[in-house]
Input
Amino acid sequence: MADALVPTKPHIQARAHVASFAAYEALHRASLADPSGFWRRQAQRVTWFRQFDETVQQDFARAEVAWFLGGKLNASYNCVDRHLAERAEQTAIVWAKDEPGQYERISYRQLHEHVGRLANVLRRFGVRKGDRVCIYLPMMPEAVYAMLACARIGAVHSVVFAGFSADALRDRIADADCRVVLTANEGLRGGKTIPLKKTVDEAIAGLPVHTVLVAQRTATATPMQQGRDRWLADELPKQRACCPVEWMDSEDPLFVLYTSGSTGKPKGQLHTTGGYLVYASYTHELVFDWRPGDVHFCAADVGWVTGHSYIVYGPLCNGATTVLFESTPLHPDAGRYWQVVDDVQANIFYTAPTALRALLRVGDEPVKKHARTSLRVLGSVGEPINPEVWQWYHDVVGDKRCAVVDTWWQTETGGILISALPGATPCKPGSATFPLPGVRPLLVDDQGKELVGNGVSGNLCLAGSWPGQARTILNDHARFQQTYFAMYPGLYFTGDGCRRDEDGYYWITGRVDDVLNVAGHRLGTAEIESALVSHEFCAEAAVVGFPHDLKGQGIYAYVIAGKAAEGVPAAEVEAVLKQVVRKVISPIATPDRIQVVPGLPKTRSGKIMRRILRKVAEANYTELGDLSTLAEPQVVEQIVQGHKAGR
Ligand code: PRX
Output
């Protein structure tokens, strides 16, 4: 059956940057015919202190990419200073606080002062160009000030999502060798407080962190270590609001952001200044069809790449009003997003399917209670969006009046690569549709052979670089090369599976490696397994994903109990191990179910047959495939029985 096509809407086309599908196709074709010329022109959207000499150099075999070589610029200057002439009094940031109905508006002029002062505080505490600074802040304006203050003086920020545990934070601070950490006494989200400063204290014990700068979000006191910990409220007034910018080379690092892979510890993806900023600005304008005056509401957290590119750098570089949303979609009720949309008159709204699924479940009434007439473009990101959720987003949230864009990208890509364009692309609900101009996706089979034409499924790769591409993994270029460029020589491999249908539409089918996508959060199975085996109750663990109504994917852990667990009831082993994962990684990584098993299905060479474990976790007991190659085929039956018993 042909997929239903949702046509573009004339009133959106009428004002769109790209106003027809033919125009998109022409633009895409031209961009691939002359990528260098295309990106050279796009690069003029940012302000260069010194123009670049060469557009791009790329060598995928060595995993080396550089954009806008010889150019000098500053990201903070582009996101703040350059707007002062025309829009100093325009709101740059609307902070929608956790407390319903409470907003704070920060103009570009005020943003300039806050960023300058904080940059001077960082300098005062010894931060220099190239130093890494850890930002472990909740969704408060200080998080944005901190990012831009780092960028201003050429320091490299490493934002760690404030939901990560002390252990996870510690690993990231140590890996990036951060000496300065910014945090808050507590976070506030959905009415609950989160003890951030306490977590930082635990995380940095024994590490060479010399300064912790603490913002105050709640009235709760927190112990301050003399000589190390400082209240921002005490330090900021001592500094001048004006701080000259450091002119950076285009390829100087802007930030590092950790993300999970299929093996080992999270990888610090390193993004550089010129390419990243141009790409964030370009995609923000094109995909959301942003125009001056539009209010952009991206409901992600600044701790993820979506927050970096589409709360901070993209919108601010373009001079937008960006919304910083501290709360949750369900606090105080399921109408919260739409209340904020009305209160701030948001034109663009961007969230993850997992949030939409939770809202759809509550029904239409909390949506319809609010007007939502300001909305024009609705975006989705982070995981495949089910067609019925897409349709609900379009019909109910958008009143069939807004464009819906399903945007596919990754931490590594810096910005959106595949997405509909509001005024140009007829949509198929559930498909991310087509590559942006300048982007050339390619599908290959497992042998690396390109799958040409339409109606094909394979592994999603990219041919050729784009400016937003991550340049390396911090401290581990070999792993960067290995992970993304070794599998299919000459191509960047995304780790995603994808179908290109008969009409050329791209459908992302999910990860083809051992990476899970749980409620839009990316987690490596290896990471969760290593957390589990860190406790003596667990001798061995195998983690797989299974379909989950709300979260997209749930986490299922099979564990072989350790000696210390002998005689301990299974329910207790399960509870203890869940707690361990929360502590080692984060509550977001907590397994939905832990099943204690007598053994794991392994080949005679000792390799765990995850395929079988996935099928069992899905309760698909009849398609386990050939078990004859297993070392102990009988464990499968025991695992199946255990799974059935636990349902
Ligand atoms: O599997 C894809 C999925 O999320 C992965 C990237 O995760 P992360 O680096 O955390 O970045 C998330 C925000 C950009 C991808 O490899 N993914 C992301 N967007 C989509 C998606 N899957 C399907 N459709 C999308 N729109």
